[in-house]
Design brief:
The chain is mainly alpha-helical. Helix content is 40%, strand content 7%. The protein is built from 16 helices and ten strands. The strands form four sheets. It has a three-stranded mixed beta sheet. A three-stranded parallel beta sheet has the order 6-7-10, with helices on one face. A two-stranded parallel ribbon has the order 2-3. The N terminus and C terminus are likely disordered.
Amino acid sequence: MPEHQHDENSAPNQADEEDAKPHVTGAHHAQGAPGAEPPLEETPAKQGHRHRSAAGLYSIWETTKRGSRLMGAKRSFKTLLALNQKDGFDCPSCAWPDPDGERKTAEFCENGAKAVAAEATRKRVTPEFFASHSIPDLLNETDRWLDEQGRITNPMLRRRGSDRYEPVSWDEALQIVGRALAGLASPDEAVFYTSGRASNEAAFVYGLMARQVGTNNLPDCSNMCHESSGLGLTETIGVGKSTVKIEDFSHADSIFVIGQNPGTCHPRMLTELQKAARNGCKIVSVNPLSETGLLRFKNPQEPLHMLGRGTPIAALFLPVRVNGDIALLKGIMKEMLDADRASGGLRLAHDFIEHHTEGWDDFVRDLDAETWDVILKESGVSRSRTPPTSRSRPSG
């Protein structure tokens, strides 16, 4: 293994020989179903200088270029103006909430615009495409290549024994679905899975159809993504979802962004983090990589601001090792506990702990039993970097 090059933006000890995992050839294949996963990308990684700030003029250019290329200039302009508006439609890119009050004319980010452009592309995948591309051929293509071919224009069917899809009429397609549902021994054998990004109207009608069949098996991607977190949160804090609103960001004294890349996954969050940083909030990023979006942000909604260096977002980066989050959090809590003891119990909200938590004594014993050697090795973050975070205490 090549010598690990330490970088201020990289978590230390990521390449420890004793912790290295062996490479498994063909790991991208599903067990027993070769080709169920797309092939590994053959294009080698590129190295270069990254941007020192996120969004700005570059983001506007990319949004305009992608929209015009896939949707056409006029159609792109009309579609994006309706994106995330009260009388428009929700962005399919992420689940970042929309403001309850006033909304900006351009209430979207570069990623959202690209997602909409991909959905509303003028490219079409016709029956002729499937006639010339067998299923084994398609399995050898990347997800990106498949997506770039465009939107399917007809219902398509793979008949038993065939290696390709062929077009069928809507009548035949609906008859096939109807026969399958009618042939079930019980309606509960059917699962009506749908996307959590479907419109409310479509989801409502879909639910009525499932109940007409006789079942309420209606999972969606929200169940698949959040069933475990919802259960854990309910057992821990009593509610299975977030307990904050967008407006709370502007009033926070400290925000911890753990294992999350806002600039990549939901760039609209950077606007709220920018407001918080300008109000004096200390933002801590816990991530092996210090993402550009948390370095500096040039808000495209502020033309004059884009000419400068941008707004610094994170005050502290903690380059944790992969899977070292629990160790890091234990280290921070251990520091907070030590600081509370040294202050005579003035650092922690003991009244809240006494009346609104359980298992506190066991929790403290567990922290006391954990050694710093284990915490530092598993987290990859030096102890000198944790005390500043232990001084951050939520207000209110």
